[in-house]
Request: fold
Amino acid sequence: MEVPRRQCEVGQGAMMHTSLPFRALNGLENADSLDTVIACLKKAVNRMIHARAAKDLLHGVPPGHPLHPLAVQLSIGAWTSAVILDPVPGTQTASEVLIASALPAVVSGWTAWAELHPQQQRVGVAHAAANAAGTLLFGVSWALRSKGHRGPGVVASAAALDTIAVGGTLCGHLACRLASGTNHAEEVPHLVAPGWQRLCELGGIPVKKIEKRSLGDVPFLVWRAADGSINVLSNKCSHLAGPMSEGKVYHSSSNPCVECPWHYSRFSMAPRSGPGSGHDPAGCV
Reply:
C-alpha cells in the first residue's frame, strides 16, 4: 500500500520551503532504494514472530495499548540516568544491564514495524539503525570500562545517548507526522451527535452480509446476524484506517468479528487480535 507524500510548504505572504532537516525526513520517507532491504527484514521478522498469540501480545492487544511505547521507557530511563550519573565520582554504568533493558523494546518495535506502510517502514528502519548504533556504543562503553578505561567509556556512553536521541527524533516523526501506531478510528465518536441516530432501514440490511452505510460523512459497517441482531462499528480499522467493510466476517464465542483486509486485525464486541490494539467504536442499533 503506497501512500504518496509531498513536501510541505508553509509561510505567510511568500511561500517558504520546509527546513532542511524536515526535507531530509521527507526524502527518507520516499527513499524506495531501501525497499529491498525492508522486504528482507520484514520477511525475517514475520518468520521469527509468526504465532498469532505472540504477535497479539507484542502489538499490545490484550491491554488495548501498543506495547512498544511502554517498553521503550525502561531503556530510555536507564540510559539517560546512566549518562547523567557518569561524571559523579563513585558511580559506574552497568552497560550490560542497559543493553538488556532494550530487548523488550526491540522485539515489540520490529513486530509493530512489520505491519506499517512503506513510508513508515523506511523511517522505521532509520530509527532502528540509530538505536542499534547507540546500543552498540553502550557496548563499546562497557568494554572500555571493563578494561579500566573509564574516561573513554564515559565518552562512548555520551555518544551513545546522542545517537539514540537521533533515533528518538525519527520515532517522533513516525508517531506525529506519519501517524504510526495511532488509533485511526479515534475521531469517529466525536463526529457523530450523541444519542441514537437513524442510520438506515432495517429491512434493507441482508442477513450475514457486510454492508457499508454512512451517517453524514462518517462511514460505518453494518452486520445482521442470523438471529436478526444488528452490529455496527466504524468502517475504519484503528491500525491504518483500512476499509473494514471489505473484510471477512468470523465468529468467536457466537459474536461476529470483522477482519481488516489490510493487516488482518479483528474487531468486534468480542475479543480482538492485532496489529490494531485500539478499541474501535462499536455498538448496536
